[in-house]
Amino acid sequence: MESIFGIHEHALMVRKEREGILANNLANADTPNFKARDLDWRKEMRDAQEQLDTSRFKPDMKRTNSRHIEGFADISTDDYLKYRVPTQPALDGNTVETHVEKAKFMENALQYQASLEFINGKISGIRNALTGG
Amino acid sequence: MSMFPTLDISATAMGAQTIRLNTIASNMANADSISSNAGETYRSKQPVFQTILDNQTGEPAGGVKVKEIIESKAPLKMEYAPNNPMANKDGYIFRPNVNVVEEMANMLDASRSYETNIQVMNTSKQLLLKTIQMGK
């Protein structure tokens, strides 16, 4: 069944995930040989959209018997993690550029709030419809 | 991983930076701890950070820890001071290899990193609070 929140539900999850990854980059700003990573947002959202549109992504396992449990493919972000290309890599092999990561983190926080706003709008719309305004 | 991984990640980073600040404080405090032989002389301590890896997958799980604290290999400063009560029989005293200017720069870096993680935590907290308020 399609969620009433549509793509925003997935967007919120992905942005939450991205927040963790960017926070990890910032936490490891002084770790030797640490490579900064980020999510391939476009790819992840496209796959999430496809997952919504069709059911072809959802059950990876075929049910040949009525007693089989439905295979549920959980959304994983591992496939979308990419390494950031640094403009000025440090001598110790660290590729975290704090200013870049901070900017991305802030951007992501704003996008997260935007997604929240969309969801809130949807909720108040439904509430209006239920109560008759 | 808990429900709020970002807070955990930033907390580990703040812990690691605190250890770094502690070693800096120790280095600065001992910058003038002289001694009569090379073996007993204080050596500058430096923490080495490492990403926390997931036990099962070996992937970076989030967060940072202090892997070890190493002692600087820089040569000690030998000083000819025959009047010093700590001088050895040749009249030399040994000063620690603490570079005070380097430590100050290091301290600023550590404090900035600490602040960055606080900002991350604050932003994350605000987002979580707004999420809790969802639909109200």
Describe it for me?
The complex is a heterodimer of chains A (133) and B (136). With 133 residues, chain A is mainly alpha-helical. Chain A is 51% helix and 5% strand. Chain A contains three helices and two strands. Chain A has helices spanning 7-27, 41-53, 98-131, and strands at residues 37-39, 81-83. Chain A has a two-stranded antiparallel sheet. In chain A, α1 packs antiparallel against α2 (41-53) and α1 (7-27) packs antiparallel against α3. Chain A starts with 6 loop residues before the first helix and ends with a helix. The model of chain A has no long low-confidence stretch (mean pLDDT 82). In chain B, β1 and β2 form a beta hairpin. Chain B is an alpha+beta fold and 136 residues long. Chain B has helices spanning 5-29, 100-132; strands at 45-53, 60-71, 77-80, 92-95. Chain B is elongated, with a radius of gyration of 22 Å. A two-stranded antiparallel ribbon of chain B has the order 1-2. Chains A and B meet through α1 and α3 of A and α1, β1, β2 and α2 of B.
